Fold:
Amino acid sequence: MADDDADDRFLVQAAFEDNDIHHEMMFFEDGEQLLEHLNATPIEGKTRFILLDLNMPKKDGREVLRALKSDKMLSKIPVIVFSTSKAPDDILSSYELGANSYVVKPSSYEHLKEVVKKISDFWLNTAITP
Structure:
């Protein structure tokens, strides 16, 4: 997960734990950290999906999407834009840049737990990725 908001990172981690989803998770404060990690680490079979905030310092979600989807190896990783923005332009541009889905961050923790469960059920248990 790349998100500059420490509270959001904490709550997502807690939602995974409360849903008994025990996959290794990594958290990054901005898109630059995420890209540095992905470019320095072999990703084969490790990165199942990325939760990506749009509005971050250094490299925002749009720049990260552009970089991920233009890289032959990294382009295979599913990217879920996870943002507070409901702006049609943000949604459209995210899909145009190659996002696999766009999810608006829930406003309550209970709803966040439901969303995390649905995302993980689909990307970890249902979808088959390269």
